[in-house]
Structures are given as C-alpha cells and as structure tokens.
Design goal:
The complex is a heterodimer of chains A (435) and B (170). Chain A is an alpha+beta fold and 435 residues long. Helices cover 51% and strands 10% of the residues of chain A. In chain A, the strands form 3 sheets. Chain A has a 4-stranded mixed sheet with strand order 3-4-7-8. Chain B has helices at residues 3-15, 21-33, 52-63, 86-94, 103-110, 114-125, 131-141, 149-162; strands at residues 18-19, 43-45, 48-50, 67-73, 78-84. The relative contact order of chain B is 0.16. Classes of the chains: A alpha+beta (435), B alpha+beta (170).
Chain lengths: 435, 170
Amino acid sequence: MAYKDEQLNEEKVFKDPVHRYVHVKDRVIWDLISAAEFQRLRRIKQLGTSYLTFHGAEHSRFNHSLGVYEIVRRILFNFEGREHWNKEQRLLCLCAALLHDLGHGPFSHSFEKVFKLDHEEFTRKIILGNTEVNHILQRVDKGFPQKVADVINKTYEDKLVISLISSQIDADRMDYLQRDAYFTGVSYGHFDMERILRVMRPLEDQVVIKSSGMHAVEDYIMSRYQMYWQVYFHPVSRSAEVILSKILHRAKDLYQQDYTFSLKPTHFLSFFTGDVSLEDYLRLDESIVLYYFQMWADEADPILSDLCVRFTNRKLFKYIEFNPNLQMEEWMELYSLFEKAGMDPEYYLVVDSSSDLPYDFYRPGEEGERLPIHLLMPNQELKELSRQSDIVESISGKKRTDHKLYFPMDFVEALPDDEPEKARIETLLGLSQEK
Amino acid sequence: MLTNHAKLMKFFMTSGEIIGRKKLQKMIYILKNCDIPFEEKFEFHFYGPYSEELTLRMEELCNLGFIAESKEKKSNYYQYRYTMTRAGEDFLNHSQVVLPPFEDKIDKMKDQSSRFLELVSTILYFKHLSKSEVEEKIQIVKKSSNYTATDIESAWQFIAELQGNEQVQA
C-alpha cells in the first residue's frame, strides 16, 4: 500500500480538553506528530505572555495544532460526497492543518518585530528544508512538501483547501478561540462549533455557511470580539509584552555596542546579527529564552538586568490610557523629564497600540480587499454576513482601537521627593490625585 | 512614538486622497518592495498581498482623527476614501520620521487601477521565483482574475519603471 494511504492498525486518540478526543488513523499524520520539529511546539506557548495575566494559559502550540487538525478532520468527514469537494485533497488538508504553525518561535510576536523575522517563512523552510517533517512529506510524493507549504502560504491553486485552514471562519480560529477560553478560564469564547461544522458548505473556491446557520456564526463572531478585548488585548499581558520586547532590544543593542555579557548569548548571536539559520531558529525555544532572562537578571548592565527581573518576577509596568492626538505635548514633556530623572525613555516610557498585537476582528471590508464570510441563501445566492446579521453589522462598526502608555511606577515613586521632575511626572501621568 | 503611524502619515501627505482600501493596501506593499521601510506585515490572501496590521493601523489613525475616512455605497459594496486632516498634519510636524523619496512612485501608482496594482503586487510577492515561474504562479493564484499576457507584460514594465530598471531580469 502506498505510504499516503497507509492506516494505523488501530486508531490512536489524544485526550483533549476542548474537542474531547483528537483522532488519528493516517500513518502520515502519526509520523508527523512524532517529528522533532513538531514536538518542539510543546515548548512554545500558544498565548505568549498571557500566562502572566491568566495563570492557566500555559497551553502550547502543540495542543493548538492538534486541535486544528481535528477540526479539519471533522469538516472533511462532513464534506464527503458533497459537490465541489475533491477527496483527493484530504491528506493535504490534514497535513497543512497540523503543520500550519510549525514556524512559530518563542514569544513569536515580539521576536518577529525585534529581529525582523517572519514565522511563515520559517514554516516554509521547515517543510521544504532538510528536516524530519520534510522527509515524511516526501515519502507521500516528491512534490507533496511544496503543496503543503503552498496551502499554508495561501498560494495553492485550490482556494477551497486554503479557506479551510485560513479564512475569516477557519479551523485555526475556531480552535484557538475555544482553547484560549478554556485555558484562560474566561467565560467568553464559547460557540456551537458542531453546528457551524454542520452548516459549512464547500464551493468552488471557498467555504460558505448555509444561511440557516447564521446565528451560530453570530455567536462565533461575538466570542471573537469578546476574546480580543478580554484576553488578547489585556493591558497586563501587553505590559509583559512591552518588557519582553524591550529586553530583546536591549540585549541586541548591547551586543552591537560590543558589551561583554557574563554569559555568552550563544543561542541569540545569529538573531543579533540578522543571519538566523534554520538550525539556530529551531534550537531557540521558550525554555532557553527564559533561562537567558534569569541569567541576564544578574548582568552588569542595569537596564537589561532590571527588565529581566521584571519579566521573571512579574514586576510589570503600569499604564495609563493615552491619546496621541490630545496628549502629544505631554508625551514630549514626559520624554524629556524621564531622561532628566535618569530613566531612559527608550526603555521606560512606551506607547503601545492595539495594532501592535497580532489579532484581528471580523471586518466585511471593501470589495476585493479581503474575502468576507459568505452565507449561502436558499436561492444559492451568496450574501456577506454583516449584510444579513444586525448583530454582526453593529459589532463591525464599533471603535476598536486604543493606545496605552506604559512606565515603571516603582521607579517614579522611588524618585526623591525633592527631585524637581518627580511632581511634574506624577501630574502628567495622572498619579497626583491618587495620593 | 508611533513611528509606523507616522510613516503612513508621510505617505498620505505625499499621496493626497486615496480612494479604496484595496488600492491603499497594494500601494503600501509595492512601496515596501521598493525599499521604503514600511513595517506592516503582509500575507498572501484571496486578492493578493494584504496586511491586517495596516488595516488596524488605518483604523487607529481614523479614530485618532489624523485621517478622515468617508464611505460611499457602490452597487454591491462600500468604497472608502482617505485624506489627511489638520490634526494629522500637526502630528506629522512633531514626528522625526524620515523616509527615502517616493513621490514619483506614488504618482505612477495613483494613475493605476486597484486591479492592476493587485497584479503588480502579486508579481512582487513571488519575486524570489524566475520570470516564467512567476507567470505560471499568476495563472494559478489569479485564475479567476483573467489577467491577459498584455496585462502581465505591462505589470513587469511598471515594476521596472518603479524600481528604476530599464529591463526586468528573467
């Protein structure tokens, strides 16, 4: 029997708190799960720094990837025999679902921003490079790794296949919303996924939702909206993210200034020089990063040391709401006051915007901008979701952006009372009234 | 502060009014590919390269009152227009952001349709491939757009002009 068709003698199951069980029967899938690059995802947290706000949010990209695979497996089971669905694409869909996050690094978002990396590019490199994953995919067919990479990169010829893994209502989002809700312990994020799976219909180039399932989709959009504000945009997680990002900037700056680290930052060297090989990338996971943060807490450089102590011991920055339009003058004054008071504003006065975060809301958008969620009406016509649903339309029109100013409250409080800058800083940060 | 927002404001100061979100997305992507250091992350989507980060940043600029957005109803959808406001000009005056000159590139792009810019940005997305591989890829990912050989040739020419090259390498 061809490798691509090989089935395990007995179906394997993974217990899963979100989907109850993840079922594996295909030999290829079983082998991919055992590959070193996939196992590495156990050491990358799904929600980055959110565990500092929600103590349960320690789940990994490994859990999530299995979940996305399981959702796609169930969708394809429902698609069997339907028009437009080509069952020859089944294994490709399952592999792409399982491997879609393979290139995520430790604290992915901050790493990407500071070191100008792209996790999608590393996903491609892992799938197409000299890796265990690649060797398994090659056994299916020489061209199979490229197909999997194309689906994940959204450049595959069959757009229906792409839309299962990546669209405004895809298996990726359906898994992470439910999984993140479960592990953070919040009561949002729940929706009737079984119902959505039952009303999904394959069309030539996209998955659409039978109009009778509109209310289940409304629930999904609502939970997406609530999760963004309650979990993903949580100001305390953003504070941790700000500190994380500043640690990486500081370490890189010090390296570029020929600073001598007490502990040679071996794992980071190629990140500092901008020449990261696949091997370097795969070696750096979150346990390694946290080890360095502990070691850097004892560094001679006061800024690196302080930031690492803050991150490790959760001594985070405080924040105030900030409007860059109305408070531009105040910000400029604060910047100068922080400098005079010996707090480097490049590290200790940080404006963080909602667009600095890697999450999006549902937007119907403009024609040709981005593919929206389409409802399949009884007359076979397609209608954009927000044109049919008052709930979705009202959420789509809401103001959803904010800016916060982060700073170390303990440093400000520790300034001597007779230091002339202190009173003015407290006034500008709105701290005076609290005393 | 807000360096990436300021870069976008520089774009609007140079471009004047932009009609259509799709056109805006493609223009920023093309400029980024001409080494103008915009930092928004783009991914390939149904209609070519698209940046959610850019969409959200635009929403922030509108909510801050730096960019005015107007929405007009077309037959089956809405179209958006963007212009810089007085508050936006003030913000930019406080900013230290410096970008390489790109006025000529904007002038060239503003005259083009968003459909054509979608083709140009898609070609640029596959720039790591050879010319023939790119064209093959266009036929695959843009099957429903029905771009002709003439469209594709014009797009190559356009890229060469933008990048200041006489001949695009095959």
